[in-house]
Here is the input.
Amino acid sequence: MATGTVDFTDVKWTMLVTLYHRARDSRSARPILGDTVAAEAVDRIDYDFDSFRMRATSGDRALVVLRAKQLDEWAGDFLTRHPEATVLQLGCGLDGRAFRLDLPERVRWFDVDLPEVIELRRRIYEERPGYRMIGSSVTDPEWLAEIPADRPVLVLAEGLLMYLEQEQVRTLLTRITERFSGGELLFDGAVSWVVRVSRMLPGFTSAFRMNWSVDGGAEIEHLIPALRRLEERAVTSESGRIGDPVLRGVYELIARIPLLKDSLRLYRFAFGKSA
Ligand SMILES: C[S@@+](CC[C@H](N)C(=O)[O-])C[C@H]1O[C@@H](n2cnc3c(N)ncnc32)[C@H](O)[C@@H]1O
Here is the structure.
């Protein structure tokens, strides 16, 4: 199905950027993630992915795919232990994780994003038994009330929470821990200097202006006491996965500069009854 011309400029544009990076990675000589679903999606969207504004974000490609790779592994690990889980992927954009991962048959997967994004998403991906899309702000309480709470839950929020206000993050994650009896939450968080700098971004890059910063997992445990930290790591610590030796060298250098090394961290939390 044709998508019609896509013309997002605000935070919704950022999901075209992450999709583009996954697609480019999958077409590179040494893919990190190998997301062919993203490459197929890019081909179906009426949007100029060769534009200057899109190419100007190329420096973020490795960060985007390293983040996705680690989250895929954590998600796969949870689903091996809980093959009947419910998965909520919040701020899913056009991410095809539900199709990229080898899901156990009984998994129930919900992809949630703003209505305009889900409208576009429905032109690219189809619902099927065990897979649904929900067009709503994640800050709206109604969508969560629709999700059956009878199974362990895996919540993924990749590149989302930094765009919300702290009180919205607290309310959303607290609501989830209250609705389900147990599960895991996987997400990334930007440190405070990154959020401060992002707020000064000019022109088209202003779509990346962030609101919520987090300087380590202890802050999250303080904000949402129901959460127990299982793991946290800097995205740059994953540079060993980069096949291109020049790019890997750049990331190894970044990983030695304390300020840059920790700019984006990945978090894995558990709550309630979870094993
Ligand atoms: C950086 S993109 C990440 C998309 C996807 N997770 C990925 O990795 O490709 C941020 C996404 O968050 C979504 N988003 C921002 N605020 C939201 C909200 N209040 N409710 C639902 N989605 C939201 C945007 O529409 C966008 O799709």
Summary: The CA atoms of residues 26 and 34 lie 4 Å apart. Residues 61-81 form the longest helix (21 residues). The chain has one domain: 62-272.
